[in-house]
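Example record for the data management plan.
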Amino acid sequence: MSVLVIGAAGAVGKRLIGALAARGERIIAVDKAPELPDSIRNLVMHAETNKDVRDFYTMQRIFQRHRLVHTVWNLAAPLSVETAQNPKIAEQVTVNGMRNVLWAMYEARVKKILFTDSIGSFGSTAPREHCTARWLTENPLQDPGSDYGRQKRGVRRLLKEFWSSGGDPRWAVLPGVLHSEATWGHGTTEYALEALLAAAQCLSGKSETFRCPIEPDVRLPMIFVDDLTRGLLALQDAKESQLQEPERGYAVPGVSFTAEELFKEIRFHVPNFEWEVDINQNMNTFAKLWPNTLSTNEPLRDLQYSPSVGFRELVFKVLIAHRDRLTA
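Corresponding structural encoding:
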């Protein structure tokens, strides 16, 4: 039996594959890229590259070739800023792509699928503190205030239909994902990654003022990718009888901080780090819509998951990784 990961070359996909491989899972990696990164190429049993989730027949053929899939991870979706820049393409990838995957799974009689939702699903009427995935299921008509959030809502509807037909869908509400990789996409919470890279460059002698694209007092939930991976695997591994939340959705909490708090912590390690506010309207609008914190109760109760990497450790880990890379 094997796990099929769609969007394998993304920041979450790479870490998820590493964790799955470490425990002996047989992995089929699917991605639109022409080849997989070196870091995961040797960890997978099969690589399906140059594959577009928007093409149903491509998805159908993948499931026909790989008959022993027991779990699917669909991570194919543009980030918030990318979606705002081209919402039609994002809709095709996120919603139509999921529809294609679910149809192909239904034909192949594969039941378990996991999807990464986002804090971008919460709009201005959502609670600011201790947000839960349950709130999204109980308020299906709330306006998330963005195409990004509306597309995530569309996917949840598809997963609910798949559940009613006998499937086993599960979804995780992700905060901003922070990691020590050298590259990343264009999302709102990625401002923190940009700031940490700029700080590491200060350590190597390249000192430039960092331009903060959001209001510095806006608090956002974040998570270090190691904690995220533990939470996602806990959701995958849980028995169906453990999942008490409606529609099997769970927030995966980490830490929360403002840009101002981040910059203060950075200066503890890099005293010459300088920053100024240069608002990006798209990013700032998203940031002000999203919750301050995510609930820890439900994932602890049902998945036995709680975050272990705190704010200061997170900042230190990312800074050191960038510093070592730049020095090398």
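Summary line stored alongside the record: Residues 134 and 245 are 7 Å apart (CA to CA).
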